[in-house]
Amino acid sequence: MVWLRREDHEDRELRGLGPWATPSRNAGPRRLPEADDPLRTAFQRDRDRILHATAFRRLQHKTQVMAAFEGDHYRSRMTHSLEVAQMARSVARALRCNDDLAEAVALAHDLGHPPFGHVGEEALHAAMAAHGGFRHNAQSARIVDLIEDRYGHGHGLNLTFTVRTSLLKGRMPEGFPLSADLRPRPPMPFEAHLVDHCDKIAYLSHDLDDGLRAGMFAESDAATLRLWQLARSACGSDNRQRIVSEVASLLIHDLVETTDAAIAAAPSGGEPPRVQHGGAMTVMAHELLEFLRARFYRAPRVLAVMHEGAERIRTVFAALVAEPARLPPSAQARIERDGLHRATCDYVAGMTDRYLGRIAAAL
């Protein structure tokens, strides 16, 4: 026999993973028990379910920073998630962590993002202030646990406990309706912290690229950044694309080296080491983030589109709450259990930017 069985992959993990990694055999239960797959580990199976989910496909038409109608070459939520997954897999493998788990979490981490990015999130959070609030990370867990019920058994994608808990990284609104076994929040696996940092690396580097492509700032402006200067020197090129790529590479390598040192220094059986950048890289990354906030995220051209999108969310949400008969049957079926406002929130949060526009125009 030459093909590898699931047990072979699991044995290889146990031999090769580091002390803070999460073996597939420790994935935790699924809410609905299932037979193991003969070829794939539990985390590989979770990754595949996420990749084939309707919610994942909708990410291709959800805004990252630049709206889809602005051009075909800007990042969407889907391309962002794919870039995070690629980085997370590389970082996890370098640190002898479970790269399948990191990839699964990265692919799912933005499933709950509503239309029009963070301003859309803020609009829904305000609309749900008296009903448990809204945050995209919490919504991601809700999607895989409940909304993406493609199998009709009421348990969503029926992912492993470890992947589900990994989606709860970040702030959680008081009263947000999570599955009972996720309250209070369990400890995060080490790989979830890796994904969180790779998320930041991805948006810092690709938003720098998209901002330049959109003409929001000039290359000479970006060249004032210390991280840009370091990247230019490291790659030995004045090519913009090469420099942006080197920015990501520098951030990734620093994360691996600094975290590896923390792992080596961590006492056995103690608290997990901290996933982090070195001091100098932390300062340069923050400088880049502040530059992007001032020159890209808060640019009038970007804000105008985002604020229009947020207004559409508020209009559509209010109209659907006032007339629940406008909701699709799948959303109406959840009203009795989840309440009208939560069922409406789930529906609006799942919309793509362009679908939200069509619904708003039809009101």
Description:
There is one protein chain. This protein is mainly α and 363 residues long. Helix content is 60%, strand content 0%. Helix 4 packs antiparallel against helix 5, helix 6 packs parallel to helix 14 (300-322) and helix 11 crosses helix 12. The mean pLDDT is 95.
How far apart the termini lie comes to: 62 Å
Share of helix, binned? 55-70%
Low-confidence runs: none
Backbone shape: globular
Number of strands: 0
Order of helices and strands: HHHHHHHHHHHHHHHHHH
Mean pLDDT: 95
Structural class: mainly alpha
Radius of gyration over all CA atoms, rounded: 21 Å
Biggest β-sheet description: none
Give the count of helical stretches.
18
Beta-strand percent range:
under 5%
Q: Keyphrases for this structure?
A:
363 residues, mainly alpha, 18 helices, globular
List the SSEs and their pairings.
Blueprint: H1 6-16, H2 42-51, H3 54-58, H4 77-94, H5 99-108, H6 117-127, H7 136-147, H8 161-166, H9 190-213, H10 219-222, H11 226-235, H12 240-265, H13 279-297, H14 300-322, H15 329-332, H16 335-338, H17 340-349, H18 353-362
